[in-house]
Amino acid sequence: MSEPALLRVAVPNKGALAEAARDMLIAAGYRQRTDPKELTLIDMDHEVEFYYLRPRDIAVYVGRGDLDVGITGRDMLLDSRASAVEVMALGFGGSKFRFAAPSGSGIDEDSLEGKRIATSYAGLLQGYLDDRGINAEIVSLDGAVESAIRLGVAEIVADVVDTGTTLRKAGLELFGDPICFSEAVLIQRADHEESASIDGLKTRLNSVMVAQNYFMMDYNVSQADLDATIALAPGVDGPTVSSLARDGWLAVRALVPRKGAHRLMDRMYDAGARGILLTELAACRL
Ligand SMILES: Nc1ncnc2c1ncn2[C@@H]1O[C@H](COP(=O)(O)OP(=O)(O)OP(=O)(O)O)[C@@H](O)[C@H]1O
Ligand SMILES: O=P(O)(O)OC[C@H]1O[C@H](OP(=O)(O)OP(=O)(O)O)[C@H](O)[C@@H]1O
Ligand SMILES: [Mg+2]
């Protein structure tokens, strides 16, 4: 009997996305490497082979068709100019790609013409400049771009910003609108065909994201207050209502949005709910 064709999936091997990508794949039921030095891992149950690669290279492999699907940052996908497309945003690794200059320099987005701009995302920056007809010199660096100004290499930097701590430490301040709002994304080759195995992966990842957006709420309530509490927490397809071994009381279970769940708990209590529990979900397919 021939071996099944394995789905080839690229996963960041280190950096800002690696740990969250691994956690998400494990939550979706896949095996992941236990030794960070392993380069690949086969999950035979799901007929998937994972390749642990630099996030910057993942769009190249997927764009060429050497790998079927990959997880990388949207900014890295756009920077690569590879023939790959975003098929699903994964809800982690959020960052912005932004301009910064020394505090008080007076440089703004209207004064980019003729400047030297240091970045490790030359493709992404060039696309921004070309779209606006701006001529500026791009100084391409590998990382730690924030130091480029102090060292005289450039007057402006364009870099990934999350908390802004790195920029502040370098005495820089942001200017202009973000060039790109990034997060981790699932990518496929631009001319990909329909694939049941990739659909399976997307469904599983989606179920993890849905689970991250909801809590399961359990509570007890008297028959008299049931309608009021259901109106506050109607669930997705209506709550499950079971009898409780206490006369005139019911046990109720409903999915509730994670956002505002604690405020909802207060309102449920005021409406008569007691013994209210919020529980994390591991995965959830609605
Ligand atoms: N501090 C951060 N917070 C959130 N996302 C980030 C942060 N730094 C980078 N990212 C995002 O993670 C992705 C991969 O960047 P990362 O910094 O891990 O790659 P790298 O610079 O090639 O690797 P390394 O920094 O390990 O040399 C990019 O999409 C980037 O926007
Ligand atoms: O706004 P912050 O929360 O400070 O995060 C942004 C910093 O994080 C990344 O650096 P990384 O550690 O990946 O180093 P690198 O510049 O060498 O890639 C990014 O390049 C910024 O320098
Ligand atoms: Mg980095």
From TrEMBL:
Transmembrane segments: none annotated. Feedback inhibited by histidine. GO terms for biological process: L-histidine biosynthetic process. It catalyses: 1-(5-phospho-beta-D-ribosyl)-ATP + diphosphate = 5-phospho-alpha-D-ribose 1-diphosphate + ATP. GO terms for cellular component: cytoplasm. It is an enzyme of class 2 (transferase). InterPro entries: ATP-PRT_HisG_long, ATP_PRibTrfase_cat, ATP_PRibTrfase_CS, ATP_PRibTrfase_HisG, HisG_C, N-reg_PII-like_a/b, N-reg_PII/ATP_PRibTrfase_C. Pathway: Amino-acid biosynthesis; L-histidine biosynthesis; L-histidine from 5-phospho-alpha-D-ribose 1-diphosphate: step 1/9. Catalyzes the condensation of ATP and 5-phosphoribose 1-diphosphate to form N'-(5'-phosphoribosyl)-ATP (PR-ATP). Has a crucial role in the pathway because the rate of histidine biosynthesis seems to be controlled primarily by regulation of HisG enzymatic activity. This is ATP phosphoribosyltransferase.
